[in-house]
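Hi support team,

I submitted a single chain yesterday and got back a structure, but I'm not sure I'm reading the token output correctly. Could someone confirm the output below corresponds to the sequence I sent? I've pasted both exactly as they appear in my results page.

Thanks,
R.
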Amino acid sequence: GVNGFTYGQNIPSSAHRTAVTNLCVTCHMQTVATTDSGFLHVGGHTFKPSWAGNATTPGEDLVGACQQCHGGSVTNFNFALQDYDGDGVVEGVQTEVGHLMAKLALLLPPVGQAKTTVSPDATWTAPQLEAAYNYIFVQNDGSMGIHNTAYAVGLLKASIANLTGDANNDGLPDAWQIQYFGSINDPNAAPNATPAGDGVPNWLKYALGLDPTKAGLSVPGGVVWANGKNLVNPPINPGETNTLEIYTAAEVVFNSVTNATYQIQTIGSLGGGWQNVGGPITGTGSPISYVTPTRSSAQMFFRVVQNP
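Hi R., thanks for writing in. Yes, this is the structure output for that exact sequence:
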């Protein structure tokens, strides 16, 4: 047969080829008792390792061959091994492979749209056609990764990496992780890691264009940097995604009492007139915090008016 498109990499294979005696026969032609509800539906000369069942009989996965290596706790083909899709949750092998296929499908035309089939045409780029070949390769295998989990996962991850530059599917570009940590697998390179010790994760520092190995200046209530970069050029437009802007804001905190309302007011200069910010706030008997944008003004003064 013809293998997948490997991008010049050595994509590993699972051990089924060497660990399973009689290969296809062991799994696809397992003996099924005549008293079994799946008799003549699964195993034997049906060559089917599973069947979906019918209105009166539940389906069945023939996992006897799987249990020889994976243990008796395996009751179906979708048993958990690793977090292949990188979402932080270890799910069944077939579920994990399905998630990788779904992510790859989003990267293929029409880009951003969920789909369960792909239809390449002459308008597709070479990288898209290569990835589509691997998508169809895994899909047409029919086992959702069970035949050769490592190879299916490897092909899908390699395809995603070639289209996004994120081989480990963790949301951070591999080039950025290698630049600062030398490897995409370094624990300090993980999205939620805080290698600088300032409590700010790598994913946020990447979004802000910051060096993840350098700590920010800790100040009361937060952390600030002086070396951020403008990643949004041109500025954010309606409907634009995968971009981030952070603006200045003021937090107005004041004590309150019950049976009273409070109106926050602002003014740009002490010689002008006060303007209401939002509507009246009902007192709770506890401190109240109100955050309001300040990016539109060079300076702002605030006051809180209590009534009564």
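A quick pointer for reading it: Helices lie at 16-19, 24-28, 64-70, 93-106, 126-141, 149-164, 174-181, 202-208. Let us know if anything else looks off.

Best,
Support desk
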